[in-house]
Amino acid sequence: MQPSIMDELQLQYRNLSQKEKEIADYIVQYKNTIHNINIRELAEHTHSSTSTITRFCRKINCESFVDFKIRLSREFEKPVDEDNCFSKVRNLYNDIVNSTADMIQQENIETVVNLIKKAKRVQVYGLGSSGLSALEFKYRLMRMNITIDAMTDSHMMIMSASLLQENDLVIGLSNSGRTEEVIQAMNVGKRNGATTVSITNYNHTPLTDISDISLFTPSMYRTGDQHFINSQLAIIYVLDVISMLLLGDPKLQKNRENTLHALYDTAKFDKANKKSPE
Questions:
Q1: Largest CA distance in the chain
Q2: In what order do the strands lie in the sheet with 213-216?
Q3: Burial class (CB in 10 A: 0-12, 13-18, 19+), 106
Q4: Per-residue model confidence as pLDDT tens digits over 115-167
Q5: How far apart are CA 103 and CA 99, in angstroms?
Q6: What pTM was computed for the model?
Q7: What angle do CA 267, 270, 272 make, to 5 degrees?
Q8: What is the DSSP string of 49-77?
Q9: C-alpha pair distances (Å), 193 with each of 164, 186, 189, 265
Q10: Cα dist. 151→47, 119, 138, 156, 238 in Å?
């Protein structure tokens, strides 16, 4: 499947010149009206030249500006009700989920799943909101009896990475691909022989440079909406896919069922032995 224009624009963004980034920013902001202007008008709006726009189009794998407009217009054929907050959030969620599904490379996802199953131990690193996603992933895999831990503190990341060895796996979560603490810890783990995986928005970043495998997710930047703050939706989608593929293993599925039954039995026991208020 051919990647969408917005996918290409995002993945190549770090590889663009400053002027080309300004063109990209303008397109994200006015993506629904670009089909109404020609290349000279876009050059005027972005204070650039037609040759710069042509180079920009080629960098995002379009043959020409005309090819770029045709592909972009196909992605935004359905009008968005910008005045209705409920419809707007729904459309933003749909766009992020659909874009994540389009960006996922099945072969890479399956490779990561196999690495998790074979790893002696798994470490997941993330700060801020990405740290919360790391913890969520930890709790899921713990129920499958996978040896995993999540680090959301920079010092803990470095300490855990220093103890990693061959047959260990470290997964770094960073939307920007430039979170220094995650990158430093991943570097330490990689030097010790661990396999490195990143889940991030952008290619050509320090994080992807040190990753054996990178799984790409759509960024909030592409929405063009300053108010949309759910930066983890795409990452959670990827973690959901990985979790479901892991549960395709009967042994891991059985482990999860055992933990759920244990929790259920404990809850029943606590309820049955709860003292009535006097």
A1: 83
A2: 148-151, 122-125, 169-174, 195-200, 213-216
A3: exposed
A4: 999 999 999 999 999 999 999 999 999 999 999 999 999 999 999 999 999 99
A5: 6
A6: 0.75
A7: 105
A8: -HHHHHHHHHHTT-SSHHHHHHHHHHHT-
A9: 7, 11, 7, 42
A10: 45, 17, 10, 6, 19
